């Protein structure tokens, strides 16, 4: 598909929308490497992708600050210490396809489990930049990020923006990133500079950020005040600003990437594999897998922890004998929390935050 080539993604990438470009990796490609290669990393865009030359990029820091800043890329990269954080970004619409199977969600892309990926991000700590503007206390304030891309799907159409609480903005993991997996941050992923807010929904990791404003209330931007909010199941999806629960930290989640649902496989051992993410600052402690629809469970193999901000891969071998096999997974975090069981119970009109137990049916077939 042309848009896949244009944006440098791997053949086989699943395009949800060509314009603006919204795409997720084929499940097998995503399952291949724990640090997602840039050409596999999902892309989520609400508007046309800006083309901001590194030399032209400026970042203004204003609002409730002691000293306003106006930084060039040169100043950002030379005056502030560079830090590395390995973090998973996860879109709030990840796994929406499972909600859609229960009840349609018009106007929203039916993302599979690939609207999430993990990269090594390099950049300055947002806390350091805020400190040089005189903001150091985690008061009950908010930090708004604004970008130049104008989103036609906002009502009214407006530049993309969102905000996070100041206490999160001052934490060590939040970066103004200019490198992704040791490459200069690609244009599609927010280059020259984007915000990376580990543990929070991807919508808060604002790309092409050019203004940071400290405020006494959350951003009024459409993507903070109206979208990315959990509405009651019977609500009008077009509910106005301030309705529903604003999404910030990601919930405990896991997904099955291989094999595909409905796969017909010969008898014998098959490896079932996927990812799990604690969400917020929680680490994954265990993933259980059931090969009998949830009647009995065994712990899966987990990859080494990279800390709370990154997913862990898991795998489990099922011995296929005959008939159909219903595989279910469930993740536990390091505080004893268990992933929610029911997809139907989590259904909401915009299809956000599907953190339910993933399921796959495998059909055992003899050729
Ligand atoms: N930033 C801007 N400026 N415009 C956008 O449309 N999309 C957000 C976020 N930052 C968006 C943005 C959403 S919803 C997600 S999930 C992540 O970027 C996706 O980041 P990626 O495209 O690098 O995967």
From TrEMBL:
Its cofactor is Mo-molybdopterin. Keywords: Metal-binding, Molybdenum, Oxidoreductase. GO terms for biological process: sulfur compound metabolic process. Signal peptide: none annotated. Residues 251-362 form the Moybdenum cofactor oxidoreductase dimerisation domain. It holds the Pfam family Oxidored_molyb. Residues 46-223 form the Oxidoreductase molybdopterin-binding domain. Transmembrane segments: none annotated. InterPro entries: Ig_E-set, MoCF_OxRdtse_dimer, Mopterin_OxRdtase_euk, OxRdtase_Mopterin-bd_dom, OxRdtase_Mopterin-bd_sf. It comes from the Bacteria. This is Sulfite oxidase.
């Amino acid at each position: 598909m042309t848009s896949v080539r244009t944006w440098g993604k791997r053949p086989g990438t699943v395009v949800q929308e060509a314009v603006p470009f919204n795409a997720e990796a084929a499940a097998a490609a995503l399952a291949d490497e724990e640090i997602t290669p840039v050409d596999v990393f999902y892309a989520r865009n609400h508007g046309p992708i800006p083309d901001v030359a590194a030399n032209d990029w400026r970042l203004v820091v204003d609002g409730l600050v002691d000293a306003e800043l106006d930084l060039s890329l040169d100043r950002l990269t030379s005056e502030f210490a560079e830090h590395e954080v390995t973090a998973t970004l996860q879109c709030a619409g990840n796994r929406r396809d499972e909600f859609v199977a229960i009840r349609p969600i018009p106007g929203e892309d039916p993302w599979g489990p690939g609207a999430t990926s993990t990269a090594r991000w390099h950049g300055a700590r947002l806390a350091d930049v805020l400190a040089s503007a005189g903001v150091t206390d985690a008061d009950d304030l908010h930090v708004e990020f604004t970008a130049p891309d104008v989103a036609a799907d906002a009502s009214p159409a407006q530049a993309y923006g969102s905000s996070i609480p100041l206490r999160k903005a001052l934490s060590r993991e939040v970066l103004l990133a200019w490198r992704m997996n040791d490459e200069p941050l690609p244009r599609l992923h927010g280059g020259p500079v984007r915000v990376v807010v580990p543990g929070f929904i991807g919508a808060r990791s604002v790309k092409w950020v050019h203004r940071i404003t400290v405020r006494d209330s959350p951003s009024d931007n459409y993507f903070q005040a109206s979208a990315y909010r959990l509405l009651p199941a019977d609500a009008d999806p077009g509910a106005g600003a301030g309705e529903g629960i604003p999404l910030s930290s990601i919930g405990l989640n896991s997904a099955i990437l291989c094999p595909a649902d409905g796969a017909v496989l010969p008898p014998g051992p098959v490896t079932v594999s996927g990812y799990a993410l604690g969400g917020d600052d929680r680490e994954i402690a265990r993933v259980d897998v059931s090969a009998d629809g949830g009647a009995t469970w065994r712990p899966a193999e987990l990859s080494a922890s990279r800390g709370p901000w990154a997913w862990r891969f898991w795998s489990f071998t099922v011995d296929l004998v005959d008939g159909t096999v219903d595989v279910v997974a469930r993740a536990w975090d390091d505080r004893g929390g268990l992933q929610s069981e029911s997809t139907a119970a989590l259904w909401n009109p915009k299809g956000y935050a599907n953190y339910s137990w993933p399921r796959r049916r495998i059909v055992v077939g003899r050729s």
